[in-house]
């Protein structure tokens, strides 16, 4: 399925099952090979062409498709990432106490699209330079919900809120938006500081050292619990009207699975003539078609008054006119800017809790780099490219925190899968997608339109999306010996603990009382973050209980990387930073920096 944020964290693998190029895009003649860095080496050309024969690519990583094709394919990537990006502000709206403030929701949606576009441009230009799209990450959702569940951040009752806003004379004391903005600033501060860890891991090259101790048995429960911990959110939205939610699920399954091999004939103009080609339309846009289909049904039911018209009646939120005023009241243009919600606030408990999300996001991105390189006609990413990619993701999360999207950014695996389907792995296409996200993020009414999506339709999307995230976590176990009682114990205990402990802490508020308020908050946030509990126990037990590398699944990972690396070309100039190659080679100092193309390991220096 290519519509959810698919946190692939199978580190070091380049072809991960769900990203196999199953379909071919429209055929094309020989394209002009132009290296955007200006460094066109004969070895790179020959290597890319040999590899493209195996992948049957129409455009590989350094190719420049025509501008109109860049816009079309870039918009396609935008639509593919739509489901994962739009889900983040919709999930956070309730715990942030935004309530029915549709203007605030619209601004959040515009902000996260804008920041995602900026981060995509950064990653494709100076990061890994792979055609990889950046967007909101579910890895940050779990710690965010844990932070907002603290007593100080729980939403006040409507009566209490009105008392906070007005004094005895009835005049306003504070901005009515201050209730949710104060919570947003806390999340901003947590993401801002914790993302420095990701930046340090990338710039220092420590990410490689960390990966040596993280195996599938640490990754699987971590990612699995991201999906499992969000079942309450999916239930709340779906429960607004289970019939509409079920319809949404059925439509998504219909387009993504049952009709996935049905190719639709489309017309294209090429070589001064019109041609008909087959295209996997349903497979690529399954989430969009499923959501729009259910949205249309809700619209028709609203028009014919088949849904309840009273807010207290079951099924009322399935109407499409509930939040219609959001579109009419939203401004045509809204320019997101840093600090638009105020100065971020920082607390130790929030930062430590968010670090669990940062580490999980880092792990999932590394696996995506290998998969993206494989499907875009590039060699496996070298160490400096991975380090730089993680550092740029850290910068992206810092920018997201400054702008106030309520989330960070990470690579999107469903867009990587689209590379294999469209057979277009051009970097320029993803840079175009980034520009489109920035431009559309500036239109206030564009973001407001998404607020009118009925709750049960969103709930149906959540049911499939969060289920896929949980399943992706489990898929990491394919390289582990599941006949080993050691592995079963680690997997079962870490996953079960990640469900039990947070539930118990939520059921017993105030049970932790060490006498130090800050320490109490740290303990509560960490032990109510499902993914932290699962990942922590999985990491500790996997590295302390005796077991062979084959039994732990680490050997299979390394074997896969070695095999693919031996079959790929060795010219990796496509990972060079543009306009900096000559300067980096001129000064010896730069070979000591692990995030630059001129970096040499200590063994090579001697």
TrEMBL record:
Keyword Cell membrane carried by entry: no
GO molecular function: transmembrane transporter activity
Mode of membrane association: Multi-pass membrane protein
Subcellular location, principal: membrane
Domain of life of the organism encoding this protein: Eukaryota
Subcellular location: Membrane
Record keywords, A-Z: Membrane, Transmembrane, Transmembrane helix, Transport
Transmembrane segments: 66-96, 108-126, 189-207, 239-259, 279-304, 428-451, 457-476, 488-507, 522-541
GO cellular component terms given for this protein: plasma membrane
InterPro entries referenced in this protein's UniProt entry, alphabetically: NCS2 (IPR006043), Xan_ur_permease (IPR006042)
Disordered: region residues: 12-34
UniProt record similarity statement: Belongs to the nucleobase:cation symporter-2 (NCS2) (TC 2.A.40) family.
UniProt name for this protein: Solute carrier family 23 member 2
Organism lineage: Eukaryota, Metazoa, Chordata, Craniata, Vertebrata
Gene designation: si:dkey-106n21.1
């Amino acid at each position: 399925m290519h519509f959810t944020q698919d946190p692939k964290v199978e580190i070091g693998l380049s072809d991960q099952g769900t990203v196999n190029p199953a379909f071919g895009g429209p055929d094309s003649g020989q394209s002009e090979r132009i290296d955007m860095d200006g460094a066109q080496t004969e070895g790179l050309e020959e290597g890319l062409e040999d590899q493209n024969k195996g992948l049957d690519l129409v455009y590989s990583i350094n190719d420049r498709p025509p501008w109109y094709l860049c816009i079309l394919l870039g918009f396609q990537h935008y639509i593919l990432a739509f489901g994962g990006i739009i889900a983040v502000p919709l999930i956070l709206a309730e715990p942030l106490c935004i309530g029915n403030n549709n203007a605030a929701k619209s601004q959040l949606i515009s902000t996260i699209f804008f920041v995602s576009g900026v981060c995509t441009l950064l990653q494709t230009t100076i990061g890994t330079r792979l055609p990889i799209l950046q967007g909101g990450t579910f890895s940050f959702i779990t710690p965010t919900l844990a932070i907002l569940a603290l007593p100080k951040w729980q939403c006040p009752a409507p009566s209490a809120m009105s008392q906070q806003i007005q004094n005895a004379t009835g005049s306003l004391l504070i901005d009515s938006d201050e209730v949710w903005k104060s919570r947003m600033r806390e999340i901003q501060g947590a993401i801002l500081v914790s993302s420095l860890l990701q930046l340090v891991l990338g710039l220092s090259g420590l990410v490689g050292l960390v990966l040596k101790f993280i195996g599938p048995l640490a990754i699987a429960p971590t990612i699995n619990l991201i999906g499992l911990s969000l079942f309450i959110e999916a239930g709340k939205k779906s429960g607004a009207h289970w019939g509409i939610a079920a319809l949404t699920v059925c439509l998504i399954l219909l387009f993504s699975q049952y009709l996935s091999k049905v190719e639709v004939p489309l017309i294209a103009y090429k070589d001064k003539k019109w041609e008909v080609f087959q295209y996997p339309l349903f497979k690529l846009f399954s989430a969009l078609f499923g959501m729009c289909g259910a949205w249309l049904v809700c619209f028709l039911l609203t028009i014919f008054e088949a849904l309840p018209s009273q807010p207290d009646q079951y099924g009322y939120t399935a109407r499409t006119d509930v939040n219609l005023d959001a579109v009419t009241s939203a401004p045509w243009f809204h320019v997101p800017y840093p600090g638009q919600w105020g100065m971020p606030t920082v607390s130790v408990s929030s930062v430590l809790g968010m670090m669990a999300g940062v580490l999980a996001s880092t792990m999932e991105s590394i696996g995506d780099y290998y998969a993206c390189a494989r499907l875009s006609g590039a060699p496996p990413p070298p160490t400096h490219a991975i380090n730089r990619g993680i550092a740029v993701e850290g910068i992206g999360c810092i920018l997201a925190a400054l702008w106030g999207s309520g989330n960070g950014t990470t690579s999107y695996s469903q867009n990587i899968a689209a590379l294999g389907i469209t057979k277009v792995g051009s970097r320029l296409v993803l840079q175009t997608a980034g520009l489109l996200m920035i431009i559309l993020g500036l239109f206030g009414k564009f973001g407001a339109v998404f607020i009118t999506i009925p709750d049960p339709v969103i709930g149906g999307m959540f049911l499939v999306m969060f289920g896929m995230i949980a399943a992706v976590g489990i898929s990491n176990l394919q390289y582990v010996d599941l006949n080993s009682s050691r592995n079963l114990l680690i997997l079962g205990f870490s996953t079960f603990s990640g469900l039990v402990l947070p539930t118990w802490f939520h059921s017993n508020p105030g049970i932790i009382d060490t006498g130090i308020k800050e320490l109490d908050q740290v303990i509560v946030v960490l032990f109510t973050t499902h993914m932290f509990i699962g990942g922590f126990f999985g990491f500790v037990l996997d590295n302390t209980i005796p077991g062979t590398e084959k039994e732990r699944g680490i050997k299979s990972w390394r074997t896969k990387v070695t095999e693919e690396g031996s079959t790929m070309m060795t010219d990796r100039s496509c990972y060079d930073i543009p306009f900096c190659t000559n300067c980096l080679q001129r000064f010896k100092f730069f070979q000591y920096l692990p995030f630059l193309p001129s970096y040499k390991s200590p063994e090579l220096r001697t």
